């Protein structure tokens, strides 16, 4: 089973490279650890994921507004948030091969309940108790240093011309939600929101991750989609249950199988948190966190009010009640969701004649290319001209690709591998040179999943196809 799963991961990684979804960063220089670039189809898939999330979290919600805060923030933000003192993972080193490991992850793999929020002492006790069961993932030996807390914030020299980062360096943000907290008052004062309301944001975050394996699951530069929801203190847990249900439903609505998703409750809560659950997805390497849905109490706004000296409480216009709003959050990485959708979509199907086709059964809305248009033959100018005409008539409404390379069978295989839901072929019947003259100005539309073909009038094609994507 494990070998099969790893094989699946290898196939996904290979498809991503071969078909232009994901490339290792700076590859011609040998790559750059834990950083990846999205290629031509990857950038489309990532954009569609962002759009689907935004539609669900902002467009369909009258109580949620959007924001795009800068990556760089005042250094005090990270003191207030606790990141300077406490945003750390437990790091140990293999004394044999010097591989650095995340101790909480190694303990979890050995089925010992642990997480990064435990104290250094607590995690070292567990590490020592289980030392016989924990092996280095690289050399297989069991000889580690003690675990030490390693801070994940990435520093920069922005605005610093001394060459010395000093005591208060400017950080690249470690999470996007701090940009939301510090803009809570601006949003409240500028747009007509009233409690409870949410602020959503999509943006880059940076973390000095210790172990960065598993492809785009864990990277040092990544993008987060986060929504922070502000509530009356007494309403926090009710709203939290609603948000949990809403976020789980998102994945079901996007076609993920319920049995590939599950809830994981955090046993070790940070002191201020009320409750914390993760939505886990069954990645090829097992069930792992896809998204966090957490109830954070009033910690965030209380801290920022304290460190900034600006009052951040809310005055209810009807009851005149004054309070610091409590916050519940939903937070997920674009890259992690990208990998989850690829895992869900990757399919190998046996065809008649003994062939196998690889097909990405992505939700149609997420597919990088919606429609591929082919002339039946490349060397027949009338076919090519008509196919171009069809392509031009569609491209304003959906992402299309014109493909005249190789035979139609090969083109289907290529489009299947990138998950294109429909292929449109212009043949001799289309241009009135076939046997059946009633088929003039019609094209063949082939469905990715069923491989069924249908004849559709060109004048009706755009409407016919668009209904699948709206
Ligand atoms: P993990 O336990 O996997 O390190 P975390 O609990 O630190 O994750 P959060 O800080 O809660 O993660 O971040 C919220 C979400 O952001 C995660 O559920 C994940 O989808 C995404 N995320 C966090 N770190 C990374 C990373 N290094 N690379 C890609 N996505 C990430």
Structural features, described:
By secondary structure, the chain is of the alpha+beta class. It folds into three domains: 2-11 and 18-72 and 174-342, Bira Bifunctional Protein, Domain 2 (BirA Bifunctional Protein, domain 2), CATH 3.30.930; 88-150; 369-466, 3-Layer(aba) Sandwich (Rossmann fold). The protein has 14 helices and 23 strands. The protein has helices at residues 2-18, 40-59, 75-80, 83-86, 103-109, 120-129, 177-181, 184-190, 236-253, 299-308, 334-345, 381-395, 408-418, 458-466; strands at 22-24, 36-38, 64-67, 88-93, 100-102, 148-151, 154-156, 170-172, 197-206, 221-231, 261-265, 275-283, 286-297, 314-315, 322-323, 326-333, 346-350, 356-360, 371-375, 400-402, 422-426, 442-447, 453-457. Helix 2 (40-59) crosses helix 11. The longest helix is centred in the first third of the chain and has 20 residues, at 40-59. The radius of gyration is 26 Å and the shape is globular.
